[in-house]
Specification:
- The structure is a homodimer.
- Helix content of chain A is about 40%, strand content about 20%.
- The first copy, chain A, is an alpha+beta fold.
- In chain A, α2 crosses α3 (about 45-55) and α3 (about 45-55) crosses α4 (about 60-75).
- The radius of gyration of chain A is 19 Å and the shape is globular.
- Chains A and B meet through β1, β3, α5, β5 and α6 of A and β1, β3, α5, β5 and α6 of B.
- β3 (about 100-105) of chain A pairs parallel with β5 of chain B.
- The structure holds a DNA duplex (25 and 25 nucleotides).
DNA sequence: GTGAATGCAAACTATTTGCAAAGGT
DNA sequence: ACCTTTGCAAATAGTTTGCATTCAC
């Protein structure tokens, strides 16, 4: 097999191949959903995924979007977050991260309020601060078992 | 007014007083919900709050639990998280935090996997590590606008 | 051709809303 | 007494399930 262009790794292709390997079929609907997620810059609601996916597969139904998202979620390709109104947002795993806002280069720290819902924070913060958010970590603070006894 | 015992600040009382001050009424149902939250060690689902609240107010309805939680949430007394199955969990604000696991006293750091859903992490981690989790912070990492241009 | 995947409609579940009755001030 | 708050039942919204049809292999 010769590859002339597009040597770059292709997420959609990789995932579809993986699906084949573990017994799932490569379908137009799955390709559509995966491609939408690949192109998205942030979190998408299922409805939005369906709307965008119809560009690639006009018959794409909302139910199938849900089923595909659940499948990809189980396989670890997409992360799920919860919006304030109770809906879910989905994004490919590399984007599914988040929390102090520190510049990797100059170590500037920007304070921001709110902490209850990560999902809703990321996009607004990017917009308001101009930061390009690349990753995030979760840090719990408290007392370890030993120190609890010494208190 | 004399206070002989229990000089300690009382959350339930504080909140109820605040409610009065801003025009809400002090009711048995609200007292029940607040007290349940005050006594809880972690996140509670509305149903569980109702069940525990009936101990203090037997007629407590689930609808009222929702309304009270929404009120307390707006006033900043409780935080809301989202469980994996789409339900919500509630806890008083001091508990509503989360993410590295660092001992306040010895600075030990415990690594743990997973980041998609904070809510489901806190309780299992407390159970598995024996840590008493008291607080958490969100830290976003990326590039600030200036550094983006220098790259 | 065979069985998995899809789409529709219906089911389900968590949450909210309408309204008459109860409760707080 | 007035007007908020409550609880029930019904409505709503997001998500899942049942089933006949379509599609990938």
């Amino acid at each position: 097999m010769k590859i002339f262009f597009n040597m770059k790794v292709n997420m959609t292709g990789d995932i579809l191949q993986h699906l084949s390997e573990i017994g799932y079929r490569q379908t137009r609907t799955r390709r559509a959903v995966i491609r939408v997620l690949e192109e998205a810059q942030g979190w998408l609601r299922p409805e939005e995924i369906q709307a965008r996916g119809k560009h690639y597969c006009p018959s794409l139904g909302l139910v199938t979007v849900y089923r595909t998202l659940n499948l990809l979620s189980k396989l670890g390709y997409v992360g799920r977050v919860h919006f304030e109104d109770g809906c879910h947002g989905y994004a490919r795993t590399e984007l599914a991260h988040g929390h102090h806002l520190v510049c990797r280069s100059c170590h500037q720290v920007v304070e921001f309020p709110g902490w209850e819902d990560l999902s809703m924070l990321i996009e607004p913060i990017e917009r308001e601060t101009g930061f390009l958010i690349e990753d995030h970590v979760l840090g719990l603070m408290g007392l370890c078992p030993v120190c609890q006894e010494e208190e």
